[in-house]
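Box S1 | Example of a co-folding query
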Amino acid sequence: MIVVESFADVRAASSGRVGLAPTMGYLHNGHLSLFRAARADCDTVVASIFVNPLQFGPTDDLGRYPRDLDRDAVLAEQAGVDVLFVPSVEEMYPEPPRLELRIADLTDHFEGAHRPGHFEGVAIVVAKLLAGCQPGRAYFGRKDAQQLSVIRRMVADLSFPVEIVPVPTVRESDGLALSSRNTFLSDDDRMAALTLSGGLLAAADAVDAGERDGAVLEALVADRIGSEDGARLEYASLADAATVQPLVELTVDAFLAVAARVGETRLIDNVAFSVGDDSVTVDRGVILEGPSVLEGS
Ligand code: AMP
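Box S1 (continued) | Returned holo structure for adenosine monophosphate
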């Protein structure tokens, strides 16, 4: 594995089918599963680590976002990454971009409503990574369900010649979705955080048992989080996966998304549903059997 800091060096080190997995670093098993998916079907695996200031709001956690490049380099190499791209802010933004990328409608609700400007910042950096690294495939986690929908739409609208590959959410053995921000959680926070995945997995079981009413599914999540003093719900909503609009009944492919604050930390999670002719398939993600690379760090 080589570590490079410029787009030109990424392209010089790439050949054959190139797979790109963009991240903000402080790697965990969710990121590693993107890298392994890319390793399985690409000749060159590029992973980027860039904490993108444009996607953080003024009260967000940009300043305290966890960073450890030496640790990340070891994990990335073990997961089969060929090129680790760690651009500086100056490489990514030699000048503040004048281009604005707003993905209408898909960003009206959920993360788009709670984090003004967030998806505009995500869209700019992902567009730059796709243009500069020129991957044939780019890998994104289902953990960020709205982000996946937004990026798919941007890639379609701009005719980027790249295939977007979704990767299932990786969870700790107790269900908690892996996130670099989990490193901020105290032991008590960690217990409170389990209400997000606990509520979602209960709603997933309800769907398996035949429930289709969005309000009922949302209440299963909201009530679970409401029962825990240490967690504050921001939203729990069933959303159409294509349009990212709220959904009253589970009649099309959808995700049930939640955001909550636990202590100072804002967490998001979701479970996804594929609607067939006479059945619904539930995607809860992948549960790790042993401890993740974040445990103890
Ligand atoms: P981040 O570093 O949080 O910006 O995430 C980088 C990429 O990893 C995004 O495509 C995320 O959706 C994905 N990702 C983050 N957490 C997980 C997880 N627990 N499981 C699968 N993918 C994830």
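The chain has two domains: 2-167, 180-287. The pocket of adenosine monophosphate is lined by residues 23-24, 30-31, 33-34, 140-141, 143-144, 167, 169-170, 177-180 (CB under 6 Å).
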